[in-house]
Write a structure and sequence with these properties.
Blueprint: H1 4-36, H2 39-67, H3 77-118, E1 126-127, E2 133-134
Antiparallel strand pairs: 1-2
Helix pairs in contact: 1-2, 1-3
Length: 147
């Protein structure tokens, strides 16, 4: 039979699994928003995931303190199944985060290259009060088409 620490750890792992389930649902919604280009919805879901991530981190530090009791606590039969489910969902969540980060990075790079190409270059150098050259930035840009 499981002792008190095992039961407490199982309870914490179940709570982490619940949070991860919520995060995965939010990540699916983020994916839909990106596909549909619904940027307002995207922002809401990202904020929601950040809150869930903070909650997960707090519980994770508590889980660590419980698990420090024994080196093999995660391999005990009562804990192992729950622990493996949490690890699996955590890995899936990390993969989703990495995919979103790559998308954001590629989009940022693309937009930056387009803006550099489209914005008229100013020929005059602008100097700061210290005498160093400042980068020339466009004051405003008007785009008359949407894709």
């Amino acid at each position: 039979m499981a002792d008190d620490k095992e039961m407490e750890l199982i309870s914490v792992l179940n709570e982490q699994e619940r949070i991860l389930d919520s995060m995965l649902k939010e990540q699916d919604k983020i994916h839909e928003c990106v596909v549909k280009r619904s940027w307002i919805g995207l922002e809401q879901y990202v904020l929601s995931i950040n809150e869930l991530g903070g909650e997960f981190s707090k519980i994770d530090s508590f889980r660590d303190s419980i698990a420090n009791v024994s080196d093999d606590i995660y391999f005990r039969p009562e804990v192992k199944d729950v622990f493996l489910r949490v690890k699996s969902k955590l890995s899936r969540s990390k993969i989703e985060n990495d995919a979103l980060a790559k998308y954001v990075s590629a989009t940022k790079k693309f937009i930056s290259e387009v803006m550099d190409e489209c914005v008229a270059k100013q020929r005059n150098e602008i100097y700061s009060p210290n005498g160093t050259i400042r980068k020339n930035y466009a004051q405003s840009i008007v785009i008359n088409r949407s894709v």
